[in-house]
């Protein structure tokens, strides 16, 4: 069978605050609002065409990082390339992220967005 044309256009994050979480990533990444169907859905888009979408989930539970037995584990995280780690961390914190207590690598920083989704800021070569 021949593979049909498939194009990944977006990663979707569940949240109980679609507007708040999308505004966090709009500010953090400097992307543009692409779709706005508040209160249930929003999508932001990078100049390269990649997208990040936000879907309302009233029962959203923040994942734990790192998770222990019985805790909600993350199922996806975002990796964001930066040129300088400390200024990027400072910017993310100013935007509303929190720095995770557990940091597994020196050249990567794990943070959590306002809905608790972990994301990594990392240096080239990391």
UniProtKB/TrEMBL annotation:
<feature type="domain" description="Glyoxalase-like">
    <location>
        <begin position="11"/>
        <end position="121"/>
    </location>
</feature>
<dbReference type="InterPro" id="IPR041581">
    <property type="entry name" value="Glyoxalase_6"/>
</dbReference>
<dbReference type="Pfam" id="PF18029">
    <property type="entry name" value="Glyoxalase_6"/>
</dbReference>
<dbReference type="InterPro" id="IPR029068">
    <property type="entry name" value="Glyas_Bleomycin-R_OHBP_Dase"/>
</dbReference>
<protein>
    <submittedName>
        <fullName>VOC family protein</fullName>
    </submittedName>
</protein>
């Amino acid at each position: 069978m021949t593979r049909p044309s498939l194009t990944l256009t977006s990663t979707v994050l569940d949240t109980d605050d679609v507007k708040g979480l999308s505004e966090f990533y709009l500010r953090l990444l400097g992307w543009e609002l692409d779709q706005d169907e508040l209160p249930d859905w929003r999508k932001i888009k990078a100049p390269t065409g990649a997208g990040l979408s936000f879907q309302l989930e009233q029962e959203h539970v923040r994942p734990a990082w790192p998770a222990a037995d019985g805790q909600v584990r993350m199922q996806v995280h975002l990796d964001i390339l930066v040129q300088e780690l400390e200024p990027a961390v400072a910017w993310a914190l100013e935007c509303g992220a929190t720095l995770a207590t557990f940091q597994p690598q020196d050249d990567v920083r794990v943070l959590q967005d306002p809905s608790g989704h972990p994301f990594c800021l990392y240096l080239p070569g990391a």
